[in-house]
Structures are given as C-alpha cells and as structure tokens.
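Record now logged underneath.
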Amino acid sequence: ASYWRDSVAGRPSDFRSMFMSCFCLVPWVSKVDFQVKRRSAVVVCGLKDRERQKIDKSPDAFFYNTPRLVKHADDDWHKRLTSLYHQELPDGGRVLDLMSSWVSHLPKDMQFERVAATGMNREELSQNKQLTEFVVHDLNADPRIPFEDASFDAVVCALSVQYLQKPELIFSEIARVLRPRGVVIVSFSNRMFFTKAVNAWKDRSGRGRVKLVKGYMAEVGAFSPARDVTEASPLTTIAPLLGSFGFSYGGDPFYAVVANKYFAPSEDELEDIREGKLKWVFATGKSADSLRKSLDQ
C-alpha cells in the first residue's frame, strides 16, 4: 500500500518539469587532454535543501529492515532492462549493482567475472543468486561506495535513484569505482515508495527525471554525454486514473540513462586518431573526427 505511482493530482505540469530540470549544471572538461576538472573541491548538482528532503525523515535502515521479496515493476519492464544490459554490459566483465535487492536483472546467457552489490536488506541480498558478493550499506548515511578505485567495468542502479539525497556524491563515487570507458546504467519507472523518494523526484515527470539523472552525471564531470532510452506510453501521465477504471495503458514506462566514464586515449590510439584509422572513440558517439579537431587545436 505504501508503494506509489505518479498520479495527475499533486504533480507539476510537464512545462514546469522541463523548466526545473534545466538548472542542473554541466561539466567543465578539457577538450585536449580529457583530464576531468571541477569548479571547486565540493561537487554540487544544484538541488536545493527542500529538494533533498523526504516525507519520512526516519533512518532508511528502519524502513528497509523488513525484506520485500517482490518485483517493483511489471514483467515487460524487467525484460526491457535485461535486454538493455545485454547490449551495454561487457561479457566477462565486473559489475556493481548499486542499491540492489533479491534480483539483479542481469542476462542469464552472459557470464561475469564479478557481480558485487550494495543494498539495504541482508535477507534480500542473500536471495540474489547472481551476486558473487554484497555489502549491506546505506548510501544516504554514508555516500562512499565500499569498493576500490577502478574496480568495475559497469555500475548499474535499477529503480532506486529516486531515494538518493546526495546524488552528486554518489555519482562521483560511481566514477571513482568505474574503470576508464566503464558504463553506468541508471533505470527507473514511475513507481516509488512515496514517503522515501526525495522531493526533487516527486516534483518532476518522467522526462524531467531523465534530465535530472543526466544532470547528476554531467555535474560530476567524469562521464561522456549521457544518452537515454525511453519507452513510455503517451497515456503514462494519466495511467493510474485509467487503471482505476479497468483500462490498460501499456504497462510501466521504461526509462534508462546511460553514460561512459571518460578516458585519456593511449599514445597508440592518438596516433590512430590522427591518421584517421580509429573511427569511434566513445560508445556514446564521440567521433574520432571531433577529437582530431580538438587535438589539432
């Protein structure tokens, strides 16, 4: 009963959502040597204190103390996420499932060297057969991810980003534990534990939340420009109303934001770029032509 979907009442218009989502800052990255720079020692994402707050201000450990061995989106949503993982995750790689539970949605036909996880409930994590290891860890209480630098090829976070009160610190940590060129995939729908989701999330619609997550990534300054995968029915906004009358609206909307960690090209790669042998540099479509122009400058 405490799980909630977006409804028409109590949510701002799409115009306001787009307007509010424009205030996330963009990274300052050197175009020549691709060394990430920050404006100051403290990374901020532009969220106001009110936007970080939740209705339920009690420690998250109390709320998540009871295991919930249920799925938090419909079957089609989970299948779409597994398909995306199949496209983006490296076979044989090392994966970190952030804020995980009893299922990680990883493709069963792929093998991974390591699948680590953080989560809030030990029983849920112990039921997850895809994990090789896990740590019970509250990222709102302690934003540091408890793993070594550059130890993962991919970091995934499913149906949980809406609960982060200090997202800029978490995404900075994601960049720290990712290897160069590593991928981060953040996925979500329109469901949430309403009393535990931050106001910044509840103040936005689906597209506004996509922009919000892109803003989290951009502010850290360690990721290539994020791309999104959005599969949502035009009726998503009034889905709960339709459902209450027994009408179908196409299932849970699927949103995912994907980016890669920046890397400094090796000398061999730079030579190939100059000679035009290397066609693509970033999986996100950063072409060698644009990088070659930067090198010339």
